[in-house]
Amino acid sequence: MFALGALFTAALASFALAKPNPASAPVSPRVLVFTKTEGFRHDSIPVAIDQLRKYGPEYNLMFDFSEDAAIFSDANMTAYDGVLFVSTSETILNPDQQGVFTKWLQSGGVYSGVHLACGTQQNMTAYKAAVGALFEYHPEQQNATFSPLTKDHPATADMPDQWTYSEEVYFFQSDPREMGATVLVTVDKTKLYNPTENPDEPPKSGTPHPIAWYIEKPQYNYTVEGAPKHGRSFYTSLGHSNETWMTDTFMFHLLGGVTWALDGASTRAYQVGIIGNNTTPPPPPPPTPKEDNSTDTGAGYIKSAASPSYMAGGLVAGTLALATALLLYDT
Ligand SMILES: *[C@@H]1O[C@H](CO)[C@@H](O)[C@H](O)[C@H]1NC(C)=O
Ligand SMILES: *[C@@H]1O[C@H](CO)[C@@H](O)[C@H](O)[C@H]1NC(C)=O
Ligand SMILES: *[C@@H]1O[C@H](CO)[C@@H](O)[C@H](O)[C@H]1NC(C)=O
Ligand SMILES: *[C@@H]1O[C@H](CO)[C@@H](O)[C@H](O)[C@H]1NC(C)=O
Ligand SMILES: *[C@@H]1O[C@H](CO)[C@@H](O)[C@H](O)[C@H]1NC(C)=O
Ligand SMILES: *[C@@H]1O[C@H](CO)[C@@H](O)[C@H](O)[C@H]1NC(C)=O
Ligand SMILES: *[C@@H]1O[C@H](CO)[C@@H](O)[C@H](O)[C@H]1NC(C)=O
């Protein structure tokens, strides 16, 4: 019993690592983490990949990692609910791949980007609509103080009111609010050493200075036939260093934003869209009470496996069965 108690405590503790899943998702959304670079390459990319591998399952996310632009084909991309561009740089997709990506975004695909993702595909209209604003420059890395503008969002719910650490503070070619963004995080510019900015000119990035934001309706031209709507977007300019990726504060911020964007109900993971992975096997069938005719449950289960409500029911029943089993064992 002690051993079991410890196991249960350990399970609870590992649960506490992350904020809850996007609860409405009946299956795990599948997300392509793309890290190809043509220009500057951040040495934090391997640490970013390790951390995403570690945290993904806590958020019910299936991550695939790639640096191969050939993955941007219709056949490959139809499996993905979301993409997460992590410190990608410059032009990494050829014109055909850009066309595939644009169509995927207009089909409900969900875009999230981190740090230099805004310095990628600068000539691709749909990419700019997805990310919200493109990179212009950053002053030298320094200790900066970031603040959430709201805590009423999964990306900022766990962020301290004043979060000070060493980061590259990005400045943009335009204000992401012009592209429909809602800014979630800002920086205290009064404490920032930035000789590049001319204080006599209105700041190109807008005010308050945008550090992380979301876009409910990215401004693509149209939605492809059959898609309920465009996917949401989320972007954070934080995430330069290994040290940052190793903090819970950053990972909760990032994955809070990514799961919020996926939860916009535009893909098959949410049983509404025309793209995405809705083929994750359902949980095993719940044990049935012993009855004379209970032997045919297997076939019945397979027939109804496509129904999301049945799957949700199976999950609840499975959880109850597990809880019952634990209780029985414990006595
Ligand atoms: C960050 O981590 C990577 C992978 O472990 C390592 O190669 C790199 O040197 C680290 N960067 C710094 C600045 O320590
Ligand atoms: C899928 O992506 C891989 C690269 O990851 C590529 O080699 C392959 O050709 C793509 N498949 C199709 C059907 O486009
Ligand atoms: C969905 O995800 C499962 C589990 O990773 C995988 O086996 C399956 O091939 C995926 N389906 C599609 C359409 O990508
Ligand atoms: C984008 O287009 C402009 C104007 O045609 C060109 O000067 C610039 O080099 C292009 N940038 C990239 C990254 O391709
Ligand atoms: C909108 O359509 C025009 C004309 O076809 C095209 O040049 C532009 O790239 C499109 N924008 C987006 C965001 O897809
Ligand atoms: C940031 O502050 C810490 C602690 O005060 C200090 O050790 C570090 O050198 C500072 N980093 C930078 C880049 O100024
Ligand atoms: C199987 O049992 C259920 C519940 O007891 C009952 O409603 C159903 O009619 C039975 N089916 C057959 C084929 O006996």
TrEMBL record:
UniProt keyword Signal present: yes
The ThuA-like domain, residue ranges: 30-261
GO molecular function: transferase activity
Keyword set includes Transmembrane: yes
Record's signal peptide: 1-18
InterPro entries: Class_I_gatase-like, ThuA-like
Region annotation Disordered: where it falls in the sequence: 274-299
Keyword annotations from UniProtKB, A to Z: Glutamine amidotransferase, Membrane, Signal, Transferase, Transmembrane, Transmembrane helix
Name the record gives this protein: Class I glutamine amidotransferase-like protein
Organism of derivation: Cutaneotrichosporon oleaginosum
